[in-house]
Amino acid sequence: MSEEFSFLKELGTDRSSLIKGLQLVQQKEGYVSDEAIEAVAAYFGMAPAEVEGVLTFYAQFKRIKPGRFQISVCDGTACHIKGSPQIQQWLEAELGIKDGETDAEGRFSIQVVACLGCCSLAPVMSVNGKVYGNLDRKKLVRVLNEYRKM
Ligand code: FES
Predict the structure, then answer these.
(1) Rounded Cα gap, residues 23 and 146, in angstroms
(2) Which residues contact ligand 1 via a Cβ below 6 A?
(3) What is the pTM (predicted TM-score) of this model?
């Protein structure tokens, strides 16, 4: 096993620890790469296709490397009523990516999430955990431009 995935050794090699192993990978790398699948499969004595099968079953696992700026767009009830589908459309148009995708430069990624816990500011999104509320198109573009400069 490559040094990179040696942290798996803290788990036993019993397959019942597979999910835990994948969670560890995602925690350390931010996603589960093809290389990680190979390493995990070899570690648990499984075929890579079996590990991929498990990954597709659980929505918690990301297969695409997240961007440097991870945008979470809220689509909870309050945000939905206040127009979050429109926010999502504007974001997709601005960045050229959809929910669950990362742009070609590896700069932005978008994920649609349930309530971010600040419904009074609806519609809301966060970038790397920083919350932006009362969004309209103008504010959205202003926020994106701030991150484009970084
Ligand atoms: S519904 Fe969007 S923050 Fe609660």
Answers:
(1) 32
(2) 74, 76-79, 115-119, 122, 124
(3) 0.77
